[in-house]
Design brief:
It contains 23 helices and 30 strands. The chain is an alpha+beta fold. It starts with 10 loop residues before the first helix and ends with a strand. The protein binds one RNA strand of 85 nucleotides through helix 3, helix 6, strand 15, strand 16 and helix 10.
Length: 691
Amino acid sequence: MYTGILPLGTMVVHRLFEKGLVYKKTAAVNWCPVDKTVLANEQVINGCCWRCDTVVEKREIPQWFMKITDYADQLLNDLDQLDGWPEQVRTMQANWIGRSEGLQINFKVSGSDLDLAVYTTRPDTLMGVTYLAIAAEHPLSLKEAKTNPELQAFIDECGKLETSEAAVETADKRGVNTGVFASHPITGEQVPVWAANFVLMSYGTGAVMSVPAHDQRDYEFAHQYGLEIKKVIEPANEESCDLKTSAFTNKGRLVNSREFDGLTSEESFDAIAKILEQNNKGERQVNYRLRDWGISRQRYWGTPIPIINCADCGAVAVPEDKLPVRLPEDVIVDGSGSPIKSMPEFYQCSCPKCGREAERETDTFDTFFESSWYYARFTCPENTESMLDARSKHWLPVDQYIGGIEHAVLHLLYARFFHKLMRDEGLVDGDEPFKNLLTQGMVLKDGVKMSKSKGNTVDPQALIDQYGADTARLFMMFAAPPEQSLEWSDKAVEGSNRFLKRLWRFTIEHIEKGTCVELSLDNLCDDLKNIRRQTYKVVSKVSDDIGRRHTFNTAIAAVMELLNTITKFDDDSEQGRAVIQEALEKIILMLSPITPHICHELWQLLGHDKWVVNELWPEIDEIALLQDKIELMVQVNGKLRSKISVSTEADKNVVEELAIADDNVSKFIDGKEIRKIIVVPGRLVNIVVAG
RNA sequence: GCCGGGGUGGCGGAACUGGUAGACGCGCUGGAUUCAAAAUCCAGUUUCUUCGGAAGUGUCGGUUCGAUUCCGACCCUCGGUACCA
């Protein structure tokens, strides 16, 4: 049901538009000429429409963008603040932002005043440039194509290529000579300009310099088309460099580079930058892989972008008092494109600036737009006047955010970006939205990601109906740690149900024997001390597993072990029963977050008035954990041969003597020279013998 | 292609800081109980074995007294790759 709450988020667009952080430019989309609709990358299968199998075309259309690149440095640097985030996610985001330092270099197009600008992080290889590569749809390429049918055919063909990076990077590298030459900024040499399918107009300048000797892709391209390969870098150490088999891509020492000969790659960076800057042919530049965020979608189901297009005033933001723009609900969906694009009653309006007739934007927002700030909205959900109020400053940042690993880059980067935008608008405090992050692994079904969009989800209701919610919860938490991906199977659910039944039965039997006396810690026998030691070892492990490691499966396993121990333990003495009571209480407290219903019931049956949900997490009895003897394993040459029991106080010499004297150990060391004895306190003894 | 994960018994997984590989559970096998079954309980369950042991954590190599754990190369697989969200 469409509630109209989400469009409140568009309030921020008004201000961002004024700040220039929202802007319009053209970008390529996948267009199905039969369905007359824009397709998502996912909906393009082998270059064809997923519904009608028509070959998909690339179309350049005007779209709205958010200037996330203005925040690239902040998004990169603030990753350091996120020590509650998994390292892998921070690495992925840093790589995605992809900050690099390099040079922008201008190659003058021969017979024209035009400059072709390229960006490179390897100016040390500049003297090895033997051709330039430009995007097929580069203006220079389009111009030349008018008189070059072969080039035009190539451009047409590239128009059919899928837009996704994976498709571009794995496609056969192909190109056509444009016939144009450009002059090398230092030597003045004429290098040919090729149009190539692996250079994208939307990446950087749409042109790259090619150094076949020192870049593998350029190397393969040069081989394919018989272009020159010119070695300008030599290994500085013992590395092998054989240009007959592949490019040498490491840094080294410059050769065949005129006055730069002999410099290291690092030294040449400054030298070359200086010369180019002096001659106005290039400059140092920091570059990012990150591109601006395209927020336009040509779909109906989404939040309308609050912009009015006026013939005279251009794009004008809808004034704040006219927000939110609501999506009309009386639409005719005919399967070809967004219905609001053919609804004058929706798009006809007057310009907020000049009052003349104008058209409302019919593109809607990317759904990532709203999911980038909903966490903040949760602090004030019933506020109908504004996006957020003071409560967001009180509650944020989110203490623990949980989401699938598939969101490691896009959603989590957009949310971080949005938080900074809202911070700069005074709507929230702090630099980052999520203090701690847990990224769940994928749940797979038949080997592929289980997701709403794929429609291959499994409803846990069937499990709940058959076994109850406690069993369903316990089973899911026990299957694997949450960070790991997991092939869905409910085969083993039986075991979780059995465990809960066993816990129930054992507790009832225990209660039926009557109430317990107080524990008297001073005169417990060794067996009872052992039970208590195990109880508190488990409390300690479960606290760590749940609180720090988030490995609920091992926490549950430890509790199962404890129940196994006390179930096998047969001691109906007063103190015996008191120790059992203590263990049972800890088990129930530890399980209560996972299986709340059964624990609520059992807690009361054990004689407590307070609800288990209101109880505190169990404390650890450090004294119960102490032990006077410890088991050490004994290895001979790294192989386990025996175990010895020693006092925790025993020093190294005593431990060595005991280990050597052990019957089974002597079998393996008799008559051999002892070379070394390694004692790892509390762990093992390893006797290294000759032969 | 690139970035980030993962690969351990028949299966899900455990081994957290380089120190007992296979915890816990599923399944399976045998037994107890039962007229019988279900449920429950007990025992066993990596492979090979001359019963002393030996081999074994995707593959190959390395470091180490000792490697699932560290290093190098590779294979397979999952997620992301900017319009699936």
